[in-house]
Amino acid sequence: MRRLRATVGAAALLLALPLSVAATVPALAAPSPAVSVASGPASGPASAFASGAAATGDPAAVRIELPRPTGKYAVGREILQLVDQDRPDPWVPSAGSRRLMVSMYYPAHAGTGGPAPYMTAGAARAMLDFRLPGNTVPTGVLTGVRTWSATGARPQGGHYPLVVLSPGFVDARTAVTGLAEDLASRGYVVALVDHTYENTGTTFPDGRTLPCVMCGVPKDWSQVDESRAKDVSFVVDRLTDRPHPAWRYARMIDRDRIGLAGHSAGGAAAVPALLSDDRFRAGVDLDGTMDVLVPATGIGGKPFLMIGHPLGGGAEDESWQQSWPRLDGWKRWLTVEGTDHHSFTDFPVLTDGLGLPPAPGTTIASGRAVDLTRRYVAAFFDLQLKGIGQPLLDGPNAADPEVTFHP
After folding, report:
1. Cα 201 to Cα 127: distance, rounded to the nearest angstrom
2. Sheet of 97-108: strands edge to edge?
């Protein structure tokens, strides 16, 4: 498992793709349990794309589409700003109370609402400028990514499990949009959280896009994970508050069926969140090193799914090795051959759309990576939050030869 743990400069390439694209630059290709990316001049395919995009000046020249959700429901999306009046911002205390932006995805009626943009212009520009200082890539390349959710869509009736979803460090919440949309299409309400000052840019309703204060500075990663655990618990507080929840469709949420999933730092935060908040019944870690280890006493018997990419030379993440025997409930540890750290996010799809080659050693097609991530994560939550049996999780199967089950 890997996390971006250093200042990322121009050589880290476009679109917060520190592994799946940055590895195309030879100096960045060497694998290690903790990736350190040095600043430097852009080179290789990404800078070629930057030049090409600048030459056309036409966002329509690049049209990227997320894979269509696989469930039976259309997907609605609403954006919330949540303010924790009882907690100062952990990274910028002078900013006052902790403020979070959350995208709510939910089962909706088809044909209602209008297209939901992938991300704001401010967040897109912040991401591009952070990855390629001085770049002239059109902002519309990112804001124009085709999603499958609709703003203002009429919600379906009924009550649905809630999955809180957390992105990786440096990554905006949009990095796992495809997974959020797919879960909602399968009958979940999904709260996708931006962790302010921990990603390239979070846009708030006043139009300001706040920067990544924590990027490239020394930090205690366990504090990051624990702070995120507080963020996601607060989100649940506000969504399930009675009689005044923060979301107008909060009646859709089944308060007794709540799960948590995340990529990288977002996945690592699942351990402290499950330990500190009994409302989280199950957790998923997508390729996140556990800076807060599972304690010897376990996590209260809560189900836990770990999905990761293979490390070089048959190595395994030490934090996963230490935590695995301590997990005291239903558990699975899956390794997906041919993947890298960001194969479990939208980034391989964006890479394909931009015409950039995959990272060396990454043999799985972007569509296949998306399919596997969606199916195994959904199967886990269907089993643990809906009580629907899932043979997919019983062990290896011939249809998915890339997926290895840890003994």
Report:
1. 7
2. 114-115, 149-151, 74-88, 97-108, 189-194, 160-166, 253-263, 280-286, 304-308, 331-336, 403-405
| Cβ neighbours of 195 (radius 10 Å) | 28
Within 187-301, strands assigned E span: 189-194, 202-203, 209-210, 253-263, 280-286
Cα distance between residue 86 and residue 45, in whole Å: 47
295 and 317 in contact (C-beta within 8 Å)? no
Could you list the pLDDT tens digit for every one of the 407 residues in the chain?
A: 644 433 332 223 443 333 222 222 222 222 222 222 222 222 232 332 333 343 344 545 678 999 999 999 999 999 999 999 999 999 999 999 999 999 999 999 999 999 999 999 999 999 888 877 777 778 898 899 999 999 999 999 999 999 999 999 999 999 999 999 999 999 999 999 999 999 999 999 999 999 999 998 999 999 999 999 999 999 999 999 999 999 999 999 999 999 999 999 999 999 999 999 999 999 999 999 999 999 999 999 999 999 999 998 889 999 999 999 999 999 999 999 999 999 999 999 988 888 888 877 799 999 999 999 999 999 999 999 999 999 999 999 999 999 999 99
Up-side HSE of residue 13: CA atoms within 13 Å toward CB? 28
CA triplet 82, 84, 85: central angle to 5 degrees?
130
CA atoms within 13 A on the CB side of 71: 27
Q: For residue 267, which of 160, 382, 175 has the smallest C-alpha distance?
A: 175
pTM score of the predicted model: 0.88
